[in-house]
Sequence to fold (381 residues):
Amino acid sequence: MVLFGVDRVAEYRQLFVGRTALLTGPSGRTSGNRPTVEVLRDCCNLRLLLAPEHGVRGDKAAGALFSDEVDEETGLPVRSLYTKTSKRLSPETLELFDTLVYDMADVGCRYYTFLSSLRYCIEDCAAAGKRLVVLDRPNPLGDRVEGGLLRPETGSFVGGYSIPVCYGLTCGELADMMNQELGCGCDLKMVPCGGLTREMTFRDWGHYWVMPSLGIPRFETALLYPGTCLIEGTNLSEGRGTADPFAILGAPFIRAEQFSREFNDLGCPGVEATPVYFTPTTSKHQGSLCGGIHLHITHEKQLQPVELGVKLLDLLRQMYPGEFQFLPPVRQDGKPFVSLLAGHRDFEDPNWQAQAILERYRQESRAFRQRKKAYEYYPKE
Fold:
Protein backbone atom coordinates (compact mmCIF):
# COMPACT_ATOMS: atom_id res chain seq x y z
CA MET A 1 0.00 0.00 0.00
CA VAL A 2 1.29 3.45 -0.93
CA LEU A 3 1.69 5.98 1.88
CA PHE A 4 0.94 9.66 1.29
CA GLY A 5 3.24 12.37 2.56
CA VAL A 6 0.75 13.25 5.28
CA ASP A 7 1.00 9.67 6.58
CA ARG A 8 4.68 10.34 7.36
CA VAL A 9 4.44 13.71 9.09
CA ALA A 10 5.70 12.30 12.40
CA GLU A 11 8.97 11.26 10.73
CA TYR A 12 9.52 14.80 9.44
CA ARG A 13 8.16 16.92 12.29
CA GLN A 14 11.42 18.90 12.38
CA LEU A 15 10.40 20.55 9.08
CA PHE A 16 7.45 22.39 10.62
CA VAL A 17 9.14 25.46 12.05
CA GLY A 18 7.29 28.14 14.01
CA ARG A 19 3.77 29.27 13.15
CA THR A 20 2.33 26.96 10.50
CA ALA A 21 -0.28 27.52 7.77
CA LEU A 22 -1.92 24.80 5.70
CA LEU A 23 -3.13 25.04 2.09
CA THR A 24 -5.54 22.16 1.59
CA GLY A 25 -8.87 20.95 0.26
CA PRO A 26 -11.27 18.07 0.91
CA SER A 27 -8.71 15.52 -0.36
CA GLY A 28 -6.24 16.55 2.36
CA ARG A 29 -6.55 13.36 4.39
CA THR A 30 -4.33 10.49 5.46
CA SER A 31 -4.63 7.06 3.90
CA GLY A 32 -6.52 6.17 7.09
CA ASN A 33 -9.03 8.98 6.38
CA ARG A 34 -7.83 11.41 9.05
CA PRO A 35 -7.88 15.10 8.02
CA THR A 36 -4.49 16.71 7.52
CA VAL A 37 -5.70 19.59 9.68
CA GLU A 38 -5.92 17.24 12.66
CA VAL A 39 -2.55 15.67 11.95
CA LEU A 40 -0.80 19.05 11.88
CA ARG A 41 -2.57 20.31 14.99
CA ASP A 42 -1.03 17.38 16.86
CA CYS A 43 2.53 17.96 15.69
CA CYS A 44 3.02 21.68 15.11
CA ASN A 45 1.66 25.16 15.80
CA LEU A 46 -1.07 25.27 13.15
CA ARG A 47 -2.47 28.80 13.09
CA LEU A 48 -4.02 29.38 9.66
CA LEU A 49 -5.78 27.64 6.77
CA LEU A 50 -5.44 28.74 3.15
CA ALA A 51 -8.18 27.92 0.65
CA PRO A 52 -7.68 27.17 -3.07
CA GLU A 53 -10.45 26.96 -5.68
CA HIS A 54 -13.39 24.96 -4.22
CA GLY A 55 -12.43 25.96 -0.65
CA VAL A 56 -10.88 24.09 2.25
CA ARG A 57 -14.01 21.96 2.66
CA GLY A 58 -14.92 21.69 -1.03
CA ASP A 59 -18.05 23.77 -0.50
CA LYS A 60 -17.37 26.30 -3.27
CA ALA A 61 -18.54 25.74 -6.85
CA ALA A 62 -16.04 25.47 -9.68
CA GLY A 63 -14.83 28.94 -10.59
CA ALA A 64 -16.72 30.57 -7.69
CA LEU A 65 -14.75 33.39 -6.07
CA PHE A 66 -14.93 33.69 -2.28
CA SER A 67 -13.61 35.77 0.59
CA ASP A 68 -11.79 35.08 3.85
CA GLU A 69 -13.80 33.22 6.48
CA VAL A 70 -13.54 31.09 9.61
CA ASP A 71 -13.50 27.31 9.36
CA GLU A 72 -16.52 26.15 11.36
CA GLU A 73 -15.02 22.74 12.10
CA THR A 74 -11.77 23.95 13.67
CA GLY A 75 -12.35 27.64 14.40
CA LEU A 76 -9.18 28.48 12.46
CA PRO A 77 -9.10 31.55 10.21
CA VAL A 78 -9.21 30.85 6.49
CA ARG A 79 -7.54 33.12 3.94
CA SER A 80 -8.92 32.74 0.42
CA LEU A 81 -6.48 32.28 -2.46
CA TYR A 82 -9.33 32.48 -4.95
CA THR A 83 -10.65 36.03 -4.78
CA LYS A 84 -11.64 38.53 -7.45
CA THR A 85 -8.56 40.68 -6.89
CA SER A 86 -5.83 38.09 -6.31
CA LYS A 87 -4.95 34.41 -6.10
CA ARG A 88 -1.60 35.01 -4.43
CA LEU A 89 -0.39 35.20 -0.84
CA SER A 90 -0.78 38.80 0.26
CA PRO A 91 1.89 40.50 2.40
CA GLU A 92 -0.62 40.47 5.27
CA THR A 93 -1.13 36.71 4.93
CA LEU A 94 2.60 36.04 4.70
CA GLU A 95 3.07 37.83 8.01
CA LEU A 96 0.85 35.25 9.74
CA PHE A 97 3.07 32.17 9.33
CA ASP A 98 6.65 30.92 9.22
CA THR A 99 6.03 27.60 7.46
CA LEU A 100 3.41 26.88 4.81
CA VAL A 101 2.30 23.28 4.26
CA TYR A 102 0.73 22.19 0.97
CA ASP A 103 -1.43 19.05 0.97
CA MET A 104 -4.14 18.25 -1.55
CA ALA A 105 -4.62 15.82 -4.40
CA ASP A 106 -4.70 16.90 -8.00
CA VAL A 107 -5.42 14.92 -11.15
CA GLY A 108 -2.10 14.96 -13.00
CA CYS A 109 -3.41 17.48 -15.54
CA ARG A 110 -2.19 21.02 -16.29
CA TYR A 111 -5.69 22.54 -16.31
CA TYR A 112 -6.16 21.91 -12.59
CA THR A 113 -5.82 25.22 -10.77
CA PHE A 114 -4.16 23.73 -7.69
CA LEU A 115 -0.93 23.67 -9.71
CA SER A 116 -1.06 27.41 -10.28
CA SER A 117 -1.69 27.93 -6.56
CA LEU A 118 1.38 25.79 -5.85
CA ARG A 119 3.51 27.90 -8.17
CA TYR A 120 2.33 31.13 -6.57
CA CYS A 121 3.10 29.72 -3.11
CA ILE A 122 6.64 28.84 -4.21
CA GLU A 123 7.23 32.32 -5.61
CA ASP A 124 5.59 34.20 -2.74
CA CYS A 125 7.23 32.14 0.03
CA ALA A 126 10.60 32.58 -1.66
CA ALA A 127 10.18 36.34 -1.85
CA ALA A 128 9.15 36.53 1.82
CA GLY A 129 11.73 34.08 3.16
CA LYS A 130 9.13 31.55 4.29
CA ARG A 131 9.49 27.77 4.25
CA LEU A 132 7.19 25.68 2.07
CA VAL A 133 6.64 22.00 2.90
CA VAL A 134 4.88 19.85 0.31
CA LEU A 135 3.22 16.72 1.70
CA ASP A 136 3.61 14.71 -1.46
CA ARG A 137 0.84 12.73 -3.10
CA PRO A 138 1.01 10.34 -6.05
CA ASN A 139 -0.04 11.40 -9.51
CA PRO A 140 -3.22 9.38 -10.24
CA LEU A 141 -2.19 9.14 -13.92
CA GLY A 142 1.23 7.82 -12.96
CA ASP A 143 4.04 8.61 -15.38
CA ARG A 144 1.72 9.54 -18.26
CA VAL A 145 3.01 12.40 -20.43
CA GLU A 146 0.76 13.68 -23.20
CA GLY A 147 -0.03 16.92 -24.98
CA GLY A 148 1.84 20.04 -25.99
CA LEU A 149 3.71 22.50 -23.81
CA LEU A 150 1.99 25.62 -22.58
CA ARG A 151 3.07 28.62 -24.65
CA PRO A 152 3.83 31.86 -22.77
CA GLU A 153 1.16 33.91 -24.53
CA THR A 154 -1.59 31.61 -23.22
CA GLY A 155 -0.49 31.46 -19.59
CA SER A 156 -3.37 31.71 -17.12
CA PHE A 157 -4.65 30.18 -13.89
CA VAL A 158 -5.65 27.05 -15.86
CA GLY A 159 -2.20 27.02 -17.44
CA GLY A 160 0.34 28.16 -14.91
CA TYR A 161 3.57 26.53 -16.12
CA SER A 162 5.26 25.29 -19.28
CA ILE A 163 4.39 21.61 -18.98
CA PRO A 164 2.30 19.26 -21.16
CA VAL A 165 -1.35 18.61 -20.37
CA CYS A 166 -0.34 15.32 -18.66
CA TYR A 167 3.05 15.84 -17.03
CA GLY A 168 3.90 12.60 -15.19
CA LEU A 169 5.19 14.08 -11.92
CA THR A 170 3.92 14.14 -8.34
CA CYS A 171 3.07 17.53 -6.84
CA GLY A 172 6.33 17.41 -4.86
CA GLU A 173 8.39 16.67 -7.95
CA LEU A 174 6.62 19.41 -9.90
CA ALA A 175 7.24 21.87 -7.06
CA ASP A 176 10.94 21.05 -7.22
CA MET A 177 10.93 21.58 -11.00
CA MET A 178 9.22 24.97 -10.74
CA ASN A 179 11.43 26.13 -7.87
CA GLN A 180 14.62 25.24 -9.72
CA GLU A 181 13.66 26.20 -13.27
CA LEU A 182 12.23 29.55 -12.18
CA GLY A 183 15.24 30.21 -9.96
CA CYS A 184 12.98 31.02 -7.00
CA GLY A 185 15.33 29.83 -4.29
CA CYS A 186 12.40 28.84 -2.07
CA ASP A 187 13.18 26.96 1.15
CA LEU A 188 11.22 24.03 -0.27
CA LYS A 189 10.97 20.72 1.55
CA MET A 190 9.08 17.57 0.60
CA VAL A 191 7.67 14.81 2.78
CA PRO A 192 7.78 11.94 0.27
CA CYS A 193 5.28 9.18 -0.33
CA GLY A 194 6.17 5.69 0.81
CA GLY A 195 6.21 2.65 -1.46
CA LEU A 196 5.59 4.65 -4.65
CA THR A 197 7.17 3.88 -8.01
CA ARG A 198 6.92 5.92 -11.18
CA GLU A 199 4.55 3.77 -13.20
CA MET A 200 1.96 3.39 -10.44
CA THR A 201 -1.46 4.86 -11.15
CA PHE A 202 -4.38 5.20 -8.77
CA ARG A 203 -5.24 1.53 -9.37
CA ASP A 204 -1.99 0.52 -7.64
CA TRP A 205 -2.18 2.66 -4.49
CA GLY A 206 -4.47 0.41 -2.46
CA HIS A 207 -6.81 3.29 -1.52
CA TYR A 208 -10.28 4.46 -2.47
CA TRP A 209 -10.78 7.56 -4.60
CA VAL A 210 -11.30 10.82 -2.70
CA MET A 211 -12.70 13.54 -4.96
CA PRO A 212 -10.27 16.48 -5.29
CA SER A 213 -13.33 18.43 -6.50
CA LEU A 214 -16.93 17.55 -7.31
CA GLY A 215 -16.20 17.65 -11.03
CA ILE A 216 -13.84 14.68 -10.73
CA PRO A 217 -15.99 12.09 -8.92
CA ARG A 218 -14.12 8.99 -10.12
CA PHE A 219 -10.67 7.94 -11.30
CA GLU A 220 -12.16 7.28 -14.74
CA THR A 221 -13.15 10.96 -14.85
CA ALA A 222 -9.54 11.94 -14.22
CA LEU A 223 -8.44 9.71 -17.10
CA LEU A 224 -10.80 11.42 -19.57
CA TYR A 225 -10.43 14.96 -18.20
CA PRO A 226 -7.16 15.86 -20.04
CA GLY A 227 -9.08 15.54 -23.30
CA THR A 228 -12.71 16.29 -22.56
CA CYS A 229 -11.96 19.38 -20.46
CA LEU A 230 -11.37 21.10 -23.81
CA ILE A 231 -15.15 20.95 -24.24
CA GLU A 232 -15.34 23.62 -21.51
CA GLY A 233 -14.07 26.03 -24.15
CA THR A 234 -17.00 25.27 -26.49
CA ASN A 235 -20.76 25.66 -26.55
CA LEU A 236 -21.25 21.99 -25.62
CA SER A 237 -21.99 20.79 -22.11
CA GLU A 238 -18.99 18.99 -20.64
CA GLY A 239 -21.37 17.07 -18.42
CA ARG A 240 -21.45 19.32 -15.37
CA GLY A 241 -24.82 18.83 -13.74
CA THR A 242 -25.03 15.20 -14.89
CA ALA A 243 -24.17 11.89 -13.24
CA ASP A 244 -20.87 11.63 -15.13
CA PRO A 245 -19.10 14.96 -15.81
CA PHE A 246 -16.40 14.97 -18.52
CA ALA A 247 -17.67 11.60 -19.75
CA ILE A 248 -21.14 12.81 -20.83
CA LEU A 249 -20.83 15.49 -23.53
CA GLY A 250 -23.41 17.14 -25.75
CA ALA A 251 -25.67 20.01 -26.77
CA PRO A 252 -29.28 20.58 -27.90
CA PHE A 253 -28.27 20.55 -31.56
CA ILE A 254 -26.61 17.10 -31.47
CA ARG A 255 -28.30 13.89 -32.65
CA ALA A 256 -26.94 11.38 -30.20
CA GLU A 257 -27.08 8.22 -32.31
CA GLN A 258 -25.42 9.74 -35.34
CA PHE A 259 -22.75 11.52 -33.32
CA SER A 260 -21.96 8.36 -31.36
CA ARG A 261 -21.47 6.36 -34.59
CA GLU A 262 -19.20 9.00 -36.09
CA PHE A 263 -17.11 9.26 -32.93
CA ASN A 264 -16.61 5.50 -32.71
CA ASP A 265 -15.55 5.47 -36.37
CA LEU A 266 -12.61 7.70 -35.41
CA GLY A 267 -11.07 4.68 -33.69
CA CYS A 268 -9.73 6.54 -30.67
CA PRO A 269 -7.80 3.88 -28.71
CA GLY A 270 -9.06 2.74 -25.32
CA VAL A 271 -12.49 4.40 -25.46
CA GLU A 272 -15.94 3.87 -26.96
CA ALA A 273 -19.09 5.97 -26.97
CA THR A 274 -22.77 5.23 -26.51
CA PRO A 275 -25.51 7.72 -27.41
CA VAL A 276 -27.06 9.64 -24.55
CA TYR A 277 -29.74 12.28 -23.98
CA PHE A 278 -29.49 14.37 -20.84
CA THR A 279 -30.66 17.58 -19.19
CA PRO A 280 -27.92 19.34 -17.17
CA THR A 281 -29.01 20.58 -13.77
CA THR A 282 -26.33 23.28 -13.76
CA SER A 283 -23.80 25.07 -15.98
CA LYS A 284 -24.16 25.15 -19.78
CA HIS A 285 -27.58 24.21 -21.21
CA GLN A 286 -29.05 23.97 -17.71
CA GLY A 287 -32.63 22.67 -17.99
CA SER A 288 -32.38 21.95 -21.73
CA LEU A 289 -32.47 18.51 -23.32
CA CYS A 290 -29.13 17.70 -24.97
CA GLY A 291 -28.04 14.91 -27.27
CA GLY A 292 -24.52 13.62 -27.08
CA ILE A 293 -22.22 10.79 -26.16
CA HIS A 294 -21.27 8.91 -23.03
CA LEU A 295 -17.61 7.85 -23.09
CA HIS A 296 -16.54 4.48 -21.69
CA ILE A 297 -12.91 3.54 -21.08
CA THR A 298 -12.16 0.13 -22.54
CA HIS A 299 -8.38 0.07 -21.97
CA GLU A 300 -6.72 2.54 -19.62
CA LYS A 301 -3.17 2.11 -20.91
CA GLN A 302 -4.19 2.48 -24.55
CA LEU A 303 -6.27 5.57 -23.85
CA GLN A 304 -4.79 8.82 -25.21
CA PRO A 305 -7.11 11.45 -23.74
CA VAL A 306 -5.50 14.57 -25.19
CA GLU A 307 -5.56 13.11 -28.69
CA LEU A 308 -9.18 12.13 -28.06
CA GLY A 309 -9.98 15.74 -27.13
CA VAL A 310 -8.45 17.21 -30.29
CA LYS A 311 -10.16 14.66 -32.54
CA LEU A 312 -13.46 15.34 -30.78
CA LEU A 313 -13.20 19.06 -31.50
CA ASP A 314 -12.34 18.29 -35.12
CA LEU A 315 -15.35 15.99 -35.49
CA LEU A 316 -17.71 18.55 -33.98
CA ARG A 317 -16.69 21.33 -36.36
CA GLN A 318 -17.11 18.96 -39.34
CA MET A 319 -20.50 17.57 -38.30
CA TYR A 320 -22.03 20.81 -36.99
CA PRO A 321 -20.38 23.72 -38.83
CA GLY A 322 -23.35 26.00 -38.27
CA GLU A 323 -23.93 25.24 -34.61
CA PHE A 324 -20.65 24.22 -32.99
CA GLN A 325 -18.65 27.16 -31.65
CA PHE A 326 -15.72 27.95 -29.43
CA LEU A 327 -16.80 30.28 -26.64
CA PRO A 328 -15.86 33.95 -27.10
CA PRO A 329 -13.07 35.51 -25.04
CA VAL A 330 -13.93 36.33 -21.45
CA ARG A 331 -10.82 38.38 -20.73
CA GLN A 332 -9.70 41.72 -22.03
CA ASP A 333 -6.69 40.18 -23.80
CA GLY A 334 -9.06 38.58 -26.32
CA LYS A 335 -8.01 34.93 -25.90
CA PRO A 336 -10.80 32.33 -26.05
CA PHE A 337 -11.00 29.93 -23.11
CA VAL A 338 -10.14 26.97 -25.35
CA SER A 339 -6.78 28.62 -26.08
CA LEU A 340 -6.07 29.01 -22.37
CA LEU A 341 -6.88 25.33 -21.82
CA ALA A 342 -4.99 24.09 -24.85
CA GLY A 343 -1.98 26.27 -24.07
CA HIS A 344 -1.73 27.56 -27.63
CA ARG A 345 -3.77 29.63 -30.10
CA ASP A 346 -3.96 27.20 -33.02
CA PHE A 347 -7.70 26.63 -32.54
CA GLU A 348 -8.31 30.33 -33.27
CA ASP A 349 -7.29 29.67 -36.90
CA PRO A 350 -10.43 28.43 -38.72
CA ASN A 351 -8.19 26.20 -40.84
CA TRP A 352 -6.42 24.42 -37.98
CA GLN A 353 -5.29 20.90 -38.74
CA ALA A 354 -5.77 18.22 -36.10
CA GLN A 355 -2.95 15.96 -37.27
CA ALA A 356 -0.42 18.81 -37.35
CA ILE A 357 -1.36 19.79 -33.80
CA LEU A 358 -1.12 16.20 -32.58
CA GLU A 359 2.27 15.66 -34.19
CA ARG A 360 3.62 18.76 -32.45
CA TYR A 361 2.16 17.45 -29.18
CA ARG A 362 4.03 14.16 -29.62
CA GLN A 363 7.32 15.92 -30.25
CA GLU A 364 6.92 18.24 -27.25
CA SER A 365 5.91 15.36 -24.99
CA ARG A 366 9.02 13.39 -25.95
CA ALA A 367 11.21 16.40 -25.17
CA PHE A 368 9.49 16.95 -21.83
CA ARG A 369 10.12 13.35 -20.80
CA GLN A 370 13.82 14.09 -21.02
CA ARG A 371 13.46 17.43 -19.23
CA LYS A 372 11.57 15.99 -16.27
CA LYS A 373 14.11 13.26 -15.50
CA ALA A 374 16.17 15.67 -13.41
CA TYR A 375 13.24 16.06 -10.98
CA GLU A 376 12.08 12.45 -10.69
CA TYR A 377 12.37 11.44 -7.05
CA TYR A 378 10.59 8.08 -7.24
CA PRO A 379 12.20 5.07 -8.99
CA LYS A 380 10.85 2.97 -11.79
CA GLU A 381 9.54 -0.47 -10.88
In short: The chain is about 25% helix and 15% strand. Residues 354-372 form the longest helix (19 residues). The mean pLDDT is 96.
